[in-house]
Amino acid sequence: MRAGALRTSVAEPEGKTVRRASFGSSSFGIVSRFLTITLIAFAFCGATSASASKYAAIVVDANTGKTLFASNGDAPRYPASLTKMMTLYMIFEAMDAGKVNKNTRIPFSAHAASRPPTKLGVRAGGSITVETAIYALVTKSANDASAAVAEYFGGTESGFARKMTDKARALGMSKTTFRNASGLPDSGQRTTARDMATLGIALREHFPHHYHYFATRSFKFGKSRMGNHNKLLGRIKGVDGIKTGYIRASGFNLVSSVKTGGRSIVAVVMGGRTGRSRDAHMAELIREYLPKASTRDRGQLIARPSGSKGAVVAGMITLPRRDIPTPKARPEEEVEVAAFAPEPAKRPRAEVAQASDAATEIRNSVNGVDPVKTASTVVPGWTVQVASSPNQQEALSALSRTREKAGDILSKASPFTVPFELDGVVYHRARFGGFNTKTAAWNACAALKKKKIDCYAAEQ
């Protein structure tokens, strides 16, 4: 089955293809159960039209892809912290690609540390491991950890959100757009119950070796023990995750995965008036539709994406696989983001003219690389940029790795870093200078690409 293709049953109570039936005893049972679900849904979202307008639900057979129940399943809704399911998908993908491991450190910028609760409370300059970030997202639903992960993998949170949206499209989530990694309020961040079900199934199918994290009941961070917000874990047989969510605009949301007796479903409820009513509605959906799920597993339902426009490298903003000449007046990061974004990229703040004291005192050699200079000491001309990172050491390491792999291509080029500020965070471009003409820089970059080194030419 192609990515995201979840089939719909003929008994779907959205009014599209409901069968007509006589009022025999069997029909009465069907009507009775439908009325039960409807009444619970009414209580779940409250009596007001404002609450009702947030409601959406879907139940999908995770063995076959068949939709067992749907109400407003394709209507746009705010995902709230269900967003973190995609943030976790991106982490798991990077782990499987060998870009990071569970002990890799994730630094916290001032932006990440300033995110509102719920949060871990890590100060700017601090860091946590990848595994701690996973636990924090699954249980505490920590917004500061989400932002730190986004900046580590995407350079900026908005840039990472565009990568999340690209991934959603690749999975078949055609009606989902992410604007941040946490689910904090943003009018442009939208999804549907069906898209969230697709993501839930994708997490189960693509990362069975990581999926156990979603069943974590609690974890200890420092002196605090943080419990999972998903209250159905341990209360309903077969529930093994996945995620809760709430902002005022969305109401109370929940995606649940259930697997027992050979049957498997993923269910989504959105727009609850309270967490308790949301949980009660989810429990009723599970009770009603799990017995109707098939015990015959038809194999993978969500195709794994075959590739992306740029690879994620730990801590780095990687480059699109094409040359982009960039004049002084247009910082490269705006172009990098635009290559991934469906909408115009936000212009970054003015570029920092000189490096900070810490940046200007870069040691004379890094793993065999020639002395590294700062932007203020590099002569004007054309350069080749190979990476950009919020971590200066990562930028220096990128220069070292590139020089080693490039061989004679960059033998006469001078490595240096250029600091710039974006959304209050200082990043560092990793560049090689000393090219007298645009053609020389472009030719060098073309040769690097033959060695599978991402780059582009830029005027210093």
TrEMBL record:
GO biological process: cell wall organization; peptidoglycan biosynthetic process; proteolysis; regulation of cell shape
GO molecular function: peptidoglycan binding; serine-type D-Ala-D-Ala carboxypeptidase activity
Domain SPOR: 376-460
InterPro entries, alphabetized: Beta-lactam/transpept-like, Peptidase_S11, Peptidase_S11_N, SPOR-like_dom, SPOR-like_sf
SUPFAM superfamilies: beta-lactamase/transpeptidase-like, Sporulation related repeat
Record bears the keyword Transmembrane helix: yes
Signal peptide: none
Catalytic residues of the enzyme: S81, K84, S141
Binding site for substrate: K243
Any Pfam family hit: Peptidase_S11
TM annotation in the entry: 21-44
Keyword annotations of the record: Carboxypeptidase, Cell shape, Cell wall biogenesis/degradation, Hydrolase, Membrane, Peptidoglycan synthesis, Protease, Signal, Transmembrane, Transmembrane helix
Domain of life: Bacteria
Coiled coil region boundaries: none
PROSITE patterns hit by this protein: SPOR
Family classification: Belongs to the peptidase S11 family.
Name of the protein: D-alanyl-D-alanine carboxypeptidase
Biological classification of the source: Bacteria, Pseudomonadati, Pseudomonadota, Alphaproteobacteria, Hyphomicrobiales
